[in-house]
Amino acid sequence: MEPNLNRRDLIKLLSVATFGSTLQLPAAEPGAPLFFTKDEFAMLDKLTDFIIPTDDHSPGAHAAGVAPYIDRTVAEAFLSEDKDSWRKGLTAIDKLSDTMHGQPFLQTTHDQQISLLRKISAQEQHPETEPEKFFTQLKETTAFAYYTSSIGIHQEMNYKGNVVLEQFVGYDADAAANGMPPWSPDK
Amino acid sequence: MLLQFPITNNSEVDLKTTYDAVVVGSGAAGGMAAHVLTSHGLKVLLLEAGKYQDTSKILHSMEWPYDHPRRGKIPPDYHPLSAREYTFRQSPYAQNSPYKKVTSYVEQWGGSDYSKTLVVDEKQNPYTGTRYAWVRSRVVGGKTNIWGRLALRLSDFDFKAKDHDGYGENWPISYADIAPYYDKVDLYLGVSGFPENLPHLPDGKFMRPLKLNYASLHLRHTLKDMNRCLTPYRAGVATDQLKHNKYRAHCYGRGACERHVGGCDIHAAFDSTNGLIRPALDTGNLTLRPNSTVYEVTVDKDTGKATGVSFLDSETRKSYQVKAKAVLLAASTLESARLLLLSKSSLYPNGIGNSSGHVGHNFCEHVMGPSVAGFMPNLVGKSRTLDDGRPGGFYVPRFRNLTTRQGDFIRGYGFEGGAGCGMTPGTAYTTPGFGEEYKKKVRDYAGATIEMGAFGEVLARYENQVEIDPNVKDAWGIPVLRFNYRFGENEKKMCEDMAKTAREMFEAAKFEITSVSDKALPEGWSIHEMGTSRMGNDPKTSVVNQFQQCHDVKNLLVVDGSTHVNASCQNPTWTIMALCWRSCDHLADQLKKGEI
Questions:
Q1: Is the distance from CB of B314 to CB of B50 less than 8 angstroms?
Q2: A60 touches chain B (CB under 8 A)
Q3: Number of C-beta neighbours around residue B503 at 10 A
Q4: Looking at the complex, does the CB of residue A93 fall below 8 Å from at least one CB of chain B?
């Protein structure tokens, strides 16, 4: 019996662990949301992609599947109020859009949509109105879903970890080149 | 290979034997007791209320969030309590909850799906009284399955604290008594650290230290000028291979320690199961019985000695008795106190070992909450570095009230901190706005962030206590604990000072500060409860002697954090194990000489 875990064993082991998950959720068919109506889903997709859009660095929330993720989690939410808050929130956005621009959100122009988002995000630390509160909820969920997605972790953040290392990372010669004081804990 | 050593949940245990010792609880203390006593050739029965769960298989430390259907979050019918709920709800907190399972706050963190079976269901395990965020883990290995890994020593600033400020009691031991046992724990389990030669935070027998990243290193240099120290996280993690333990790997810097609430699926981080219990089972002297909820220490009416324990099979609820020459309680500070108080008899009407009336009292811990967060301006927008490829960030040891009195409070606090970007950016939740500008800011600032939070000594006070609530019972019909525990003035003033000094250090380092808090989190948050059966030389004011034997009942020992006289501000796990090792050496000697 091999007494110590060597690097190769570890990699073998971890590849098994990665595919070991037995959790099952209903798979979302593209275009067939589980909880939201088609229109609600389109609006959600648009809103999340406004929060984290595609830029010259990486694809945004739409490409990262943020709306399908939210749809899946809302569909399986345990308390009905956790489901209702999403539907009510989207309705509140449409209502505000109607007040501001005389049209539901999806029917307004790009600039009108941006001006609505500016309005509801102005007080995100202390939201008061229904649409403001919904923005805070939507942004937090969008951020979670985007930055835990493959696009978010690898393309947008260029995360370098979750790998097997022989040496710990930290101070090195590059740091010294950046004007950092030379101090090595490895002496 | 490493993972091919299943521990069975076999409950067939010979209950006719009189064991040399029965140990209640299999966490840091119980595992250590099993290790030390079996290594002396003694026959030991280890009882654990929870099941055996193989963390090698359940933690999935390197699974990417997007490969999990809920991105690592627990199922929707599970509910982790929030800080707010502990404040606005009346305990028992899970009472009338519609959810299938309610857990303590730790399951609010990311990756909680992997650890959801390692913490207790609050519905089955209620408690009453004042606000307390009590985190419990009923599983082989106890809370070491998810612990924070900071492995610190106490010093005579703690053991002889009364000599410094006149408050409370000194411990009946000094650093010199326990230092050899800290060394043994270091060498047997592995601890990573960098020697700093501080009298108040003694160095250990360190393995390869962690490295500091840019911002942490910069803060280290700033603090040096302020006569303060920042040292790499002293992690109870085998950063080099332990030659004597085939169940543990060394750390591979995967940065996985905290992603799934806690735990290490290759056991580079110490956990009691793989660090202590499995090697003890290999001696042939240990019998492990999971699913054993102990509810009473049994007594011989003639001699007054403990004869063993009574327990329920946690699944069948069938009651059993087992006999032993010595009984060691290692069920955690609060559960051990509960057991002593539950063990009432005509000989011990206030609970066994409690002639002093001190059992459950002098309950102390660490206060948490005050913190500072910010960023290092010259790192903003720099290309990504790997910042979490090691099992911890940094630690700022205590600097208050050491040689001179500072502030309007006594005792001290330290800071745990970290810098740089993990797998997901914290800046995503703190950056205002939306759109390209938001996205760029999250990206640019993620690697520049640095933050630290304080852990402060809560004074041991007689009036802070737990007692049995006869009116409320847990799922096994056992009366629960009622808390009567609050932070006091000293903690309040200490929290203000924590925020003040945190700000001052970040300002000195020329970090841009984004937030400072002086608010304490709910009582219990640190998961460092101590002191309910404190040790001492005087049987009138303490429960156990310096070898953790009850003054009243010499063959009954309490070997967990219960016996700590004060909380210090340094994390307790390493001290729990060093003390337990010392006491078990002493017990083994006494058993061999027939003195027990």
A1: yes
A2: yes
A3: 16
A4: no
Q: Which two tokens stand for residue A171?
A: 């101070």
Largest Cα span, chain B: 79
> Cβ A185–B211 below 8 Å, yes or no?
yes
pLDDT digits (tens, 9 = 90+) for B9-42: 555 678 889 999 999 999 999 999 999 999 999 9
Q: From CA B339, how far away is CA B272, in angstroms rounded?
A: 22
Give A168's pLDDT tier (boundaries 50, 70, 90).
Answer: confident
Cβ neighbours of A33 (radius 10 Å): 22
pLDDT tens, position by position, B98-111: 999 999 999 998 78
- For B217, the closest of A72, A161, A171 (CB atoms) is A171
- CA within 13 Å, CB half, A104: 7
C-alpha distance from A109 to closest chain B C-alpha (Å) = 16
A80 touching B, CB under 8 A?
no
Q: Are B152 and B568 within 8 A, CB to CB?
A: no
pLDDT of residue B6: 52
Chain A residues with CB-CB distance to B69 below 8 A: 21, 23-25, 72
Concatenating the DSSP letter of every residue in B322-383 gives: EEEEEEEE-S-HHHHHHHHHH---SS-TT-TT-TTS-TT-S-B-EEEEEEEEEE-GGGTTPP
Q: Is B487 strand, coil or helix?
A: coil
Q: What pLDDT is attached to residue A31?
A: 60
- The predicted structure's pLDDT at residue A172: 56
Percent of chain B clearing pLDDT 90 (strictly above):
93
**Nearest-by-CA chain B residue for A76:** B76
Residue A174 is predicted with a pLDDT of 53
Distance CA B547, CA B245 (A): 27
Q: Is the pLDDT of residue B245 over 50?
A: yes
For chain A, what is the total number of helices (H) and then of strands (E)? 8, 0
Write down the mean pLDDT value for chain A. Answer: 82
Q: Is B44 on the interface with A (CB under 8 A)?
A: no
Contact check, Cβ <8 Å, A143/B428: yes
Residue A97, classed as helix, strand or coil, is helix
Tens of pLDDT, residue by residue over B43-82, are: 999 999 999 999 999 999 999 999 999 999 999 999 999 9
- Asked if residue B523 has pLDDT above 80, the reply is yes
Query: In angstroms, what separates the C-alpha of B148 from chain A's closest C-alpha?
Result: 18
Q: How far is CA B469 from CA B319, B353, B415, in A?
A: 22, 19, 36
Q: Is the overall model pTM greater than 0.80, yes or no? A: yes
Give kind and range of the element (H or E) at residue B472: strand B465-473
Phi, psi of B388 (to 5 degrees): -115, 25
| Mutation to test the B interface, candidates A2, A5, A110, most B Cβ within 10 Å | A5
In contact, B139 and B48? CB cutoff 8 Å? yes
Q: Are B490 and B411 in contact (CB under 8 A)?
A: yes
Enumerate residues 6+ apart whose C-beta is below 8 A from B205. Answer: B183, B186, B187, B191
How close B485 comes to chain A (CA, Å)? 33
Backbone torsions φ then ψ of A29, nearest 5 degrees: -70, 140
Is the CB of residue B80 less than 8 Å from the CB of residue B135? no
Confidence check: pLDDT of B442 > 50: yes
Q: How far is it, in rounded angstroms, from Cα B58 to Cα A160?
A: 24
Using pLDDT thresholds of 50, 70 and 90, give the confidence band for residue B568: very high
- Give the span between the Cα atoms of B364 and B455, in whole angstroms: 13
**What secondary structure letter does DSSP report for B35?**
H
Please say if the pLDDT value at position B506 is more than 70. Answer: yes
